[in-house]
Amino acid sequence: MQEQTLSNEVDIRRKKIDDLRAMGEIPYKEKFERTCTIAEAREKVGQRVKIAGRIIFKRVMGKFGFIQIRDINAKIQVSVGRNELDEQSYDFYKKMIDIADFVGVEGEVYLTQTGEVTVRAEKVTLLSKTLRSLPEKFHGLTDAETIYRQRYLDLITNEKSRQVFLTRSKIESFIRRYLEDNGFLEVETPVLQTSVSGASAKPFFTHHNALDITCNLRIATETWLKQCICAGFDRVFEMGKDFRNEGMDPSHLQEFTQVEWYASYWNFEDNIKFFYNMVNKMLTECLGTTKITYQGQEIEFASEWPRINYVEKMNEILGFDCLAEEDVDAFKKKVVEKGLYSYGELEECKTVRTLIDYIYKRKIRASIVNPTIIYNYPAVLVPLARRNDNDARVADMFQVVAGGAELVKAYSELVDPILQRQLLEKQLEEKALGDEETMDVDEDFLLSMEHGMPPISGLGFGIDRFVQFIFDLPNIRDTILFPLMKQQ
């Protein structure tokens, strides 16, 4: 029945388009000269304006009525009546202009008796005729499938969605300005690569026909940005898409947006301070507050972020020293005997690295709500991180975790080319054991290291997950304009 209604609606509107052309009207105008945006018009009571937008509401009461038009930022009421329009223009407005059409409106801005900012239309111009109306009663979309597949309808009808994506845009703009104001230079590095490097993740592969080589989509920008530091750039950053061919869940996507930056002569403690200051200034500018509400709990980003020592917390959970374990089977046996997990649950863990990470994500990370600094990571987890001078089994690294998910990862970078080669070759051994989330021996990256790099600290910050957290969204796809969907 609904499909029949939609079909009838399209037929009716298609007939109107034919009638418009028969009348000599152009149903899709070339342009319209606005004097201001809708938001600006709301501040111009007593002044004449020319504005444009999509009709989201229409009510005709004989010789008088109202419409509402909106754009992405604001909406405004327009009064349309025979006192301002001649009979022919008013008849055209009543019969030929529908909800969802784009119109241009010219008239004076005034306040109604109820205080509603309104434009008294002296002229209404049809700019673009639509074939389909908006969702029923303009209450907004609620079906997740439709929201993701037809995001444009979601943005037209849902105020929260508009705020999410407008704020996301502000956040990305702020990050760029903040980094540039602090001496960072934005660069671009390849998306198509010939080595899997920069993170522990399963890549997407494709074929380059012209060169006849297999390539992977980048999982991170790290190794290229470090080569920029080798080249003499003092501080660099890149914001863009990374790709990891892994499972989907409410906080993970295969295609995601991340900003990475690298600063010469910093260590990870410098990045902790820098990131903390950046986030608080960003929230103040983009949200107007450093407080957010997450799952009913108020979280103050401006307060001091607590710290958790990764190794100490892990050892407390395990009851033994995780850094002393080198054999994955012996490690699993202890974990099972402790009653933490069964052998079946640990089947996917092929190496000590993946086993430690598995336990951490479920026993430590999952329960963290407020922004928390996790530091003192087992070095085996991150082949590209600098080893601690006092204990080489530990990496000089931190993450900020909130809402049970990683918001940011950063460390003092490993710039020792001899040790770096050894660690990447160790990754090959782990790949042979069945671990699909290992890095390749990136010879181009190693060659750059052999030419020398200064002390460096780098940081990776996921934009999607941060937006999900600050808006308390149930699914990370709620932060993506057009998420990839399975074919219908």
Compact summary:
With 488 residues, this protein is α+β, with helices and mostly antiparallel strands.
Features:
14 helices, 18 strands, 8-stranded mixed β-sheet, about 500 residues, alpha+beta, 5-stranded mixed beta barrel
- End-to-end gap: 21 Å
Q: Measured on Cα atoms, how large is the radius of gyration?
A: 28 Å
Low-confidence stretches: none
State the helix count: 14
**Biggest sheet overview:** 8 strands, mixed
Mean pLDDT: 93
What's the overall geometry?
A: elongated
Indicate the proportion of strand residues: 25-35%
| Strand neighbour order, sheet with most strands | 6-10-11-18-17-16-15-14
Please state the structural category.
alpha+beta
Helical residue percent band: 25-40%
Give structural notes.
- The mean pLDDT is 93.
- It is built from 14 helices and 18 strands.
- It is α+β, with helices and mostly antiparallel strands.
- A hairpin with a 4-residue loop joins strand 8 and strand 9 (213-217).
- Strands 6-10-11-18-17-16-15-14 form an eight-stranded mixed beta sheet, with helices on both faces. Strands 1-2-3-5-4 form a five-stranded mixed barrel.
- The longest helix has 23 residues, at 159-181.
